[in-house]
Design brief:
This protein is of the alpha/beta class. It is built from six helices and eleven strands. The chain has one domain: Rossmann fold (3-Layer(aba) Sandwich), CATH 3.40.50. Helices cover 33% and strands 22% of the residues. The strands form three sheets. A seven-stranded mixed β-sheet has the order 5-2-1-6-7-11-10, sandwiched between helices. The protein has a two-stranded antiparallel ribbon with strand order 3-4. The longest helix has 13 residues.
Amino acid sequence: MVYVFLADGFEIIEALSPVDMLRRAKVETKLVGVTGEIVTSSCGVAVKTDMLIDEFDFYDVEAVVLPGGMPGTLNLENNQTVQNIIDNASNTNAFICAICAAPSILGHKGLLNEKEATCFPGFENALEGASLSEDFVVTDSKFITARGAGVSVDFGLEIVKQLRGEELSNEIRSQIQCR
């Protein structure tokens, strides 16, 4: 199961494009409301989540996804339950995926130390100890990071690739006419 965490102020396509790619791949994916059942994006779109964060159970986690956006990233980082989930994921084989400003959360925790990573320009200093990449999407061991909204589909397809293989990821890429 993949869990995508939404907090008020999240970037809508950084959250929903990966969900779309994962569901096309038949990967069970749930939107988790951190700030409520209805979460409002940075551009004012309200999204109904599948579950609230207090319903989260770590037993079946394949990956956690942290969308960026402001103040969504700060709302994720300031939530102790989200912090605990990231800690649990870092101690298992679960992938930890973050895009735009959200890799800063992982950097502040020291999880990207000696890892290759990327983020939205201007957040590089928060990726403490990371080897910064100019690539739009970067996978290093179980960490998948991406630069921003414009590469949200590629970010989602990389998660599919890591969870279900390159062939399925490429098949979906072809179906949606993505370069």
